[in-house]
Write a structure and sequence with these properties.
The complex is a heterodimer of chains A (about 950) and B (about 80).
Chain A (H helix, E strand, L loop, with lengths): L12 H13 L3 E6 L4 E7 L5 E3 L5 E2 L5 E2 L4 E9 L11 E4 L4 E6 L2 E6 L5 E3 L10 E8 L20 E2 L3 E6 L1 H18 L5 H16 L11 H13 L9 E7 L10 H21 L5 E4 L1 H10 L1 H12 L3 E4 L13 H19 L5 E3 L10 H6 L5 E3 L2 H4 L10 E5 L5 E5 L11 H10 L9 E5 L10 H9 L8 E4 L2 H8 L8 E3 L15 H23 L6 H12 L12 H22 L5 E2 L10 E4 L5 E3 L2 E6 L8 E2 L17 E2 L3 E5 L5 E6 L4 E2 L1 E12 L18 E2 L2 E11 L3 E9 L4 E9 L5 E9 L4 E9 L5 E5 L4 E5 L5 H5 L3 E2 L3 E6 L2 E7 L4 E5 L2 E8 L11 E13 L7 H9 L3 E2 L13 E7 L6 E6 L6 E12 L5 E10 L4 E5 L1
Parallel strand pairs in A: 14-15, 14-21, 14-22, 15-16, 17-18, 18-20, 19-23
Antiparallel strand pairs in A: 1-13, 2-3, 2-4, 2-6, 5-12, 6-11, 7-10, 7-13, 8-9, 8-11, 19-20, 24-28, 24-48, 25-27, 26-27, 29-30, 30-31, 31-32, 33-34, 33-39, 35-36, 36-37, 37-38, 38-47, 39-46, 40-41, 40-43, 42-45, 43-44, 44-47, 45-46, 49-50, 50-53, 51-52, 51-53
Helix pairs in contact in A: 1-2, 1-3, 2-3, 2-4, 2-12, 3-4, 5-6, 5-7, 6-7, 8-15, 14-16, 15-16
Chain B lengths: L2 H14 L3 E9 L2 E7 H4 L4 H16 L4 E6 L8
Parallel strand pairs in B: 2-3
Antiparallel strand pairs in B: 1-2
Classes of the chains: A alpha+beta (about 950), B alpha+beta (about 80).
């Protein structure tokens, strides 16, 4: 007999409550008066404040009309004379939209509407006897995913239907009861709360609803229902909750993501405006806003709103947080870039508000480098906040929420990795979830819970604040305290000797693809980081006193290190914008650097590594340019004339084995190396695939640009050899072999260079990359026994295990490194030095250098097209430090320049001269020194210098620089 | 300007600005076949956009077309 599942059933009481709750919400407005003379003009934003208009004039906009166009901005206006029946009442403006609209009335910004809110209070900002001149600027760039309303996808799109604009009055009695029900229904539906209490709520909410007569025209019984909620539900304190939660209002704003940077100007305006208006209404409301850059855009383009913001900063309601200029990616940028984020960020806050901040506020950043604590600490930052490691880690539960974070040099900052997402809407279930997920209940004090809509800005709503005002009526809720970010940090972390310590990088076990996606941006970023260094050193040598030009260029550069720009997780126009910025910065820095008759070594180490010097008459070629390979032999920070040496004697012999002064090399036709025998060290370096191009299918799913899955090696695609390896060029220093490889869609030319006077083996890759969902890696299986890889982190190195013993090592199957990575055993090892790659994997004896990805979300054409990049395989004796791999990597990345200037200051060896710049106040030369080998020592300077922090504030004086492992030291001369 | 040029140079940048993507396939008679990728591929109100495209082509090129929209969703959204 067939079993028939009975699915028909009657409505449950709680569904009856829900149904009536929907009816109740229809009565929030007691009257709505439609504005019927609206006019609209379509446009497209072309820069931060410029628009191309599609029509000469405005056209009428009526309810039911289509409005907004792809990438469009809409200007809407109307002159409204209030009807007599509305005068004397509390008036609201209401416009329900999936777009984002800022509203001005008679020249004053009144508020904003967007998918998260549909009305704004009008009365305090208008004179009801005047004609109200409405001016609205709308833009339709909501993000594709909405955590609270996933069904909102149904109305997300470039063309919207106008649902009308109204001047309304609100039935506060109904509205209050709606907020009560919103709050209580959330608890009733959440399994995080006591089962008996939820049963009690379901019963009593139904009883409260029973008091309202939905059939009456006047909706009688609302006051009775409210009274019932107060006296029966709120009055019941038999059910005790636990916990202590700090509620911090915040809105995360991606400077660029599914929108361009130019659009963030208005997203920020709307966000700030909405929060200011909430502050007007709720004097106890405090809001936390980060990124000095967005404050600058507000100040520049919307000064009247900025003045209001300053007033709210002064009264303590509006809290600037986050010392960094933008929320940068904290994996790829170099130490100096991160320092400049702090320097220019703090400088901006100091100028605007007369004070710096003592926290870094990085809720959405994809993991944080180990070099960060020192940089923060020396930039006036004691506290660090970043959410991702708690909620996004895909393998391990990060073991702390409130803790001390110890950096590579031993510096410590007090850290908070809040247990839950930085976007919440202040619902009891979200707060309860936060408390339950909070690990440091016994040591960390309160837990931090952020609330407010974000990613595209928006922030808090009336509802969030109204709910918050009701929390202390509920005994089931954790104790909640609304406060500023700095209040939370000072109260719970400062002087807290119970906090545990995390010593190491804050590796995010997700988004591992962002070390590689959009590889051209990353290589350009690397080159410009060093070009900034060169330009500033040249400026110092020429005694140029102006800092404004370089500061402005640097700021533009830092914006592009935002955590959805440099990681590659953005739409195509964002990439185009970044490239345009890079080209502009590049050109401007070239102009600053200038030229001269001699070659100048900007490094404070002797240039003793073989490098390629472009020369049209050269006998070798690289990156499509003619030139010569030579050993410059130029002293630190000195100049010299260079001449290519003519070496006519044969230094290489070809055959089954290629013989050079250093190696006997057996190549395969695809450019991989079967054997690399080191004649000097008498050892074989290869054990497995070595310099082998491997292309894997790479299907991480929705987080396409962000993620690589742990099983990416499961499916490898065939790479065919179309032209076997053969010699194409040879002179007295370098022999270049070429092989051409191909997949069905892409061509990959590999140029392998062997040298007479270098242990390095360089591989240049010229790729026409037309793949989709692929990850290309170069694999190096080394004849080296080690359990650790060393990785450059730009101001020191980090050790990473190469085994997979525990889930912690398993999760780190793809890591970020900077200029080099290395596998060594006692006696020697192999480093792979790159000129713009960041992703790498380490497993047993194998390095996998990630070269290219091919993702399609958010950018359909991400990384498609031509690529040209190099890496250098560097077998060496001894360890990384004794082999001076870091020095070699600097020489590989920092080109010689032509200049006739002279360096007159000390050279500061053995520390790395990370930067030399004019101080921001123009009074001294600032020298930044970085210990990168884990050593301790002293440098006698022979003159007195000022010891500075990274904000260029004087801490003392000395004639001796004492340094400790991985320390970054700033001095002023 | 041809319809293809118009799609690729005038319309494409605008759709890209919203995370979308359009590719010209062909014009046969009045039937303009376009491939939509990115956010466009899963847009539930794409018909409004194709109507706008028809209007824009009429306005700027004085040509009447009917858009035949082909959605190319990424595998992870093709459910």
């Amino acid at each position: 007999m067939a079993h028939i599942k009975v699915i028909r059933r009657s409505m449950r009481p709680e569904e009856w409550t829900d149904l009536r709750f929907g009816w109740l919400k229809r009565h929030i407005y007691s009257s709505k008066w439609e504005i019927k003379n609206l006019m609209i003009r379509d446009a497209r934003q072309t820069s931060e404040m410029n628009f191309e208009y599609y029509t000469e004039d405005y056209r009428p906009l009526n309810k039911g009309d289509m409005y907004f166009t792809p990438d469009g901005t809409a200007f809407i206006k109307a002159d409204v004379t209030l009807p007599e029946e509305l005068k004397g009442k509390e008036l609201w403006f209401s416009l329900k939209t999936a777009a984002e609209i800022c509203v001005k009335v008679n020249g004053k910004y009144v508020g904003g509407v967007d998918p998260n809110r549909e009305r704004m209070l009008l009365s305090p900002y208008i004179n009801e006897n005047e004609v109200l001149h409405f001016e609205m600027m709308g833009y339709n760039r909501s993000k594709p995913d909405d955590e609270r309303n996933p069904e909102s996808l149904s109305v997300r799109g470039c063309r919207q239907i106008f649902e009308g604009a109204y001047i309304c009055t609100v039935n506060h009695e109904v509205q209050d009861l709606v907020w009560d029900f919103e709050l209580l229904l959330d608890i009733a539906k959440s399994e995080l709360f006591n089962e008996d209490y939820r049963a009690f709520l379901n019963k009593e909410l139904c009883n409260a609803m029973n008091l309202i007569d939905f059939d009456s025209d006047e909706l009688t019984g609302v006051a009775d229902a409210k009274k019932y909620v107060d006296e029966v539900i709120y009055a019941n304190d038999n059910y005790k909750g636990s916990g202590d939660v700090a509620l911090i209002a915040h809105s995360h704003l991606d400077v660029a993501y599914y929108w361009r940077r130019i659009h963030a100007v208005q997203k920020n305006l709307r966000t700030v405006l909405i929060q200011l208006r909430l502050m007007d209404k709720y004097p106890d409301f405090k809001y936390t806003h980060t990124q000095p850059y967005v404050y600058e855009t507000l100040e520049k383009y919307y000064p009247e709103v900025f003045e209001e913001l300053k007033e709210k900063v002064a009264n303590g309601q509006f809290e600037p947080v986050g010392a960094m200029y933008v929320e940068p990616d904290c994996n790829v940028p170099s130490a100096e870039s991160l320092i400049r984020q702090c320097l220019y960020g703090q400088q901006t806050y100091k100028r605007m508000f007369g004070k710096t901040v003592n926290n870094a506020w990085l809720p959405d950043v994809f993991g944080n480098s180990w070099i960060l604590p020192q940089i923060l600490k020396k930039s006036g930052v004691d506290y660090f906040v970043s959410n991702k490691m708690s909620t996004w880690n895909d393998t391990n539960r990060f073991p702390h929420n409130n803790f001390k974070w110890k950096g590579i040099d031993g510096s410590e900052v007090l850290a908070c990795v809040p247990p839950t997402h930085f976007i919440t809407w202040n619902m009891p279930s979200q707060i309860q979830e936060n408390w339950e997920a909070y690990i440091d209940k016994d040591s960390g004090g309160q837990t931090l819970n952020m609330f407010g809509y974000g990613d595209g800005g928006s922030g808090c709503t009336e509802e969030m604040i109204e709910l918050m005002h009701r929390f202390d009526k509920l005994s089931i809720m954790p104790k909640c305290q609304h406060m500023r970010g700095d209040e939370f940090l000072e109260k719970n972390l400062k002087g807290n000797d119970k906090l545990e310590t995390w010593d190491g990088e804050l590796y995010l076990e997700m988004h591992r693809g962002t070390f590689t996606t959009k590889s051209i941006l990353k290589r350009y970023n690397r080159a410009l980081e060093f070009k900034f260094r060169t330009a500033e050193i040249l400026s110092i040598m020429r005694a140029d006193i102006g800092t404004d030009k370089i500061r402005e260029l640097y700021k533009k550069f830092l914006i592009n290190q935002f955590h959805d720009i440099i990681p590659g997780s953005h739409i195509h126009p964002v990439y185009e914008d970044a490239m345009e910025d890079y080209r502009e910065i590049d050109k401007a820095l070239d102009e600053i650097i200038g030229t001269g008759s001699k070659y100048f070594n900007t490094l404070n180490i002797k240039r003793d590594a073989l490098i390629f010097v472009p020369n049209k008459k050269g006998t070798s070629s690289r990156y499509g340019e003619k030139g010569n390979w030579l050993v410059p032999d130029i002293a630190p920070l000195s100049s010299a004339s260079l001449r290519a040496t003519k070496h006519s004697a044969e230094w290489i012999s070809l055959g089954d084995t290629v013989e050079t002064p250093y190696y006997s090399v057996k190549f395969r036709e695809d450019g991989s190396i079967e054997s690399l025998y080191d004649k000097e060290l008498c050892r074989e370096w290869v054990k497995g695939d070595f310099n082998k191009l491997k292309i894997y299918t790479d299907n991480p799913g929705n987080y396409d640009a962000w993620d690589i899955l742990p099983n990416y090696k499961d499916k490898q695609i065939e790479v065919k050899v179309t032209t076997p390896l053969h010699l194409i060029e040879k002179d007295g220093e370098c022999a270049t072999f070429e092989t051409v490889l191909a997949t069905e869609k892409s061509e990959w030319k590999m140029l392998i260079r062997l040298f007479r006077r270098s242990r390095g083996i360089e591989v240049e890759n010229i790729v026409n990359w037309q793949e989709k969902h692929k990850l290309a890696k170069a694999q190096f299986s080394c004849n080296v026994l080690t359990r650790k890889a060393l990785c450059d982190v730009s101001a020191g190195y980090i050790e990473r295990e190469t085994h997979r013993n525990t889930t912690w090592q398993q999760a780190r199957f793809e890591c970020c490194h900077h200029k080099w990575c290395d596998l060594s055993e006692t006696g020697g090892g192999i480093a792979v030095i790159n000129d713009g790659k960041y992703g790498a994997s380490f497993e047993e004896n194998t390095i996998g250098l990630s070269l290219l990805r091919a993702t399609i979300r958010p950018d359909v054409t991400s990384d498609m097209g031509m690529h040209n990049f190099c890496y250098m395989i560097m077998p060496h004796s001894g360890d990384v430090v004794s082999a001076k791999i870091n020095d070699i990597a600097y020489q590989y990345n920092v080109p010689l320049i032509k200049s006739d200037c002279a360096w007159t200051l000390p050279t500061f060896e053995p520390l790395y001269l990370q930067a030399a710049k004019r101080s921001e106040d123009g009074t001294m030369t600032v020298i930044r020194l970085s210990e990168q080998n884990g050593a301790r020592g002293k440098i006698k300077l022979g003159k007195t210098v000022k010891l500075l922090n990274m904000l260029e504030e004087v801490l003392g004086e000395t004639d001796t620089v004492e340094y400790s492992p991985f320390e970054i030291i700033t001095v002023g001369i | 300007m041809t319809v293809q040029n118009y799609v690729e140079n005038i319309l494409q940048p605008k759709l890209q600005g919203d995370g979308g993507w359009v590719e010209y396939v062909g014009l046969e008679g009045e039937i303009l076949t376009l491939i939509f990728r990115g956010e466009c591929s899963k847009c539930l109100i794409l018909h409004r956009c194709t109507q706008w495209i028809e209007e824009q082509i009429k306005l700027d090129l004085k040509k009447t077309v009917k858009v035949n929209a082909i959605r190319k969703k990424p595998y992870f959204q093709d459910v």
